[in-house]
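Extended Data, panel c. Modelled sequence:
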Amino acid sequence: MAGAGLARFDADGCLVWANPAFRAALPWDSGASLRASLSGVACPDAVERLASGGTVAIAAAAGRRLTLAAAEGEEGETLLTLVEAEASPEAPPNLSANRATFQTVFDAMSDAVCAFDAQMRLVVWNRRYEELFQLPPGLAVPGCPMAELIRYTARRGEYQPAVVEDADLQRIVAERLELCQPTNPLSYRLNRTDGMILDVRHSPLPGGGFLRVFTDVTERARAEEAQGQIMQTIAFPLVVTRVADGVVLAGNRPAAELFGVPVEQAVGRARAYDHYSDPVERERLLEALRAGGGRVDAFETRMRRANGSEMWVIASARLFRYQGETAMLACVTDITARKRAEQALEAQWTQASAVLNGLSQGVMAFDRDLRLVAWNQRALELLSVDAAFARFHRPFAEIARHVAERGGYGKGGLDALVEGRVAGLREAGGELREERVRADGLVVESLTTPLPDGGIVTTYTDVTERKQAEQELAASRELFELAIRAAREGISQWDLRTNDLWFSPQWWGLLGYGEEEMSNTLARWAELILPEDREAMLRLVGEFAAGTREECQLLQRYRHKDGHIVHLFTRAIRVVGSDGRAFRIVGSHTDVTERVRAEEQAHTAREEAESALRNLKEAQAHLVQSEKMAALGSLVAGVAHEINTPVGIALTGASLLSERIRLIRRDFEAGQIRKPDFADFLDTASEATQLMLLNIDRAAQLIQSFKQIAVDQASEERRVFDLRDYIQEVLRSLGVRIKRAAHTVIVDCPDDLLIDGYPGALSQVLTNFVMNSIIHGFAPGQHGTLRVSVRCVGEDDVELVYADDGRGIPPDLHGRIFDPFFTTNRGSGGSGLGLNIVYNIATRTLRGRIALDSAPGQGATFTLRFPRVAPAELVVA
């Protein structure tokens, strides 16, 4: 082999330099990545094997077998040594023949390098190895047993104070040789007695033997120790992890307390991946570090403590070289409490969103970090922001870019527009009022107000109509002045900036004043207002001018020049300037005196009508009571007529008996009484007495019946009664009127049908039915049949059907038959209340319902259905 290949790769793994032997064997381009170059020609983990101190075999062209070995330089670069294993049978079975080839390469390395064959004999070393262990020329020769080298360095105190006893030497040699047996790469740190600190990497070689690289890391180790001490003094958590696999390389006590893992247990054992709630988050952090040039600030994620509890953290991370490896230093802060507060705030925002969406203005609020914390739909509409884009804690810069992309800030570069918006907010010391015109012509006015906690709130108002109104107002000023002169209404203007008041001549004319009498001052205007209205009127106008009252439409009373009162209806508006403040109030005044007087007259007429209605209701109630008393009077007359016959017969019998007693007494006193005369007297007395008893009993029954019915109708007392017997009693009380009309009455009612209700109410209903039939149901001289039928409907209701076969009721009167004061016989004394009383009793007192079925010439049928037991809560009116 003519010579070894040598190449140097920088800390990023890119080829910087290679000697001719290396380029002849491996023609890699300068700047080529080591990982990319090894892909396809070596094992997949070739880079990792080299980084851990191992060797990598490469298959080259023409069957050549190449071996790569790596060493780390002082500035983090990687030095690669390329050797070719010759297949010649004359080649010795050990590595000693290659010593001359490697010597130049190894002597150029800053690390001490040595290689031993399978028999633990020295085959390759460099000058740095001789210098580091101070080997004499006779010892540093090919084939020197490793045991001899260990004895030499032990006697010099390399592993502990100088050893002179053979037993101690044998023990040390055995221990050190044991360290050379591992078949896998390993590394360890050697602290020499002279204070030097070495990093030792042990790499087994193909076919037996091993390669060792000794790196002087004294200064770096002391610096790391100092860094560790500094880290321990820092009050906030710091963690150093290896980028390749996430193993913890260093940490301070605050970090140990935060994660619940002692530092000594974490370093070299714990993996950062195990403490992320989602391991993908660490990959996202590494991507952000690479994109940010090795620097990331304010990276929020969720992590886990050793006990499994989760926490929100914010991390600031940096990439740097630590102990010869690419590492990440992270400063971690627990923000769980803040995130909970933000989540609570977000929940409050969800509840408040309904309120904000009810506002006519657009609203957006940002916290002190310019993150969105509140908004409403109107703001999104005015800014042309998609609803899906707005989310809690979205940065203002992103929203500004979203608006700028849609032309919301006009023309210009996106970055410049966004930076200008952000800078404008941060530099504004107080309120910031802006106005911009969207591409569709909509004019949006924004007002940004700082909040005490450092945040801001911005309101957005669509002022397109206001701007158009201002333009139209300015363009039509002359037309407005002409309209004022031609208008029949009074016009007023009040300049709030100068406090000047102006009324048009038409306004003064409404109050009877000419142009020469006009005095446009606040004092004069206040004098014309009625004294009793003045204070309230001035206060209301002041509130409208101050903006605390949104609209102004009011009726004002003024004193006319002639002394009478004039009513003016005033409508006023505020004119708002570009600063959003009202600077003028314009009003129109209409004389509505005649309308007010008409309304007053209408009000008086309404009160009079209401009074008449009350009197009418009272009269109706009086008539109803009179109707009831009339019915009772009719009952009295009928009963009196019925009683008259038995009483007359009893009176005749009593008179006859009195006369016979007088005659028998005369004969008795004269002593002329005879037996036949006395027997005749006894017969006459017996007959007269019998006749008197029969008729007096009849009269007593009529009186009792009249008494019960009269009491029922007068008192409307509730009681239990037999319906059939009661119907008979009511009809008996009406017997005179029925007989006089020569009508036939038929009653069909079950026996022993007991009703718990109001018999007086039922008596009034039946009496009105009968009297209505007698008075209205038949033509004069016509005789008919009155039928009362009763049946039970289920267990709770009773149906009473009253029918006559008279001339009937026309269909067009069915809808009015129960109305009060409706009658077809008013000229004959009808009051029109009979059937209205029936309807009220049926629906209110009896708690039932009533229906009419009638046709001309077919009589009238009334069907009354009511409960057998009246409801207990009924209150009789």
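The chain has a mean pLDDT of 81. This feature is highlighted in the accompanying rendering.
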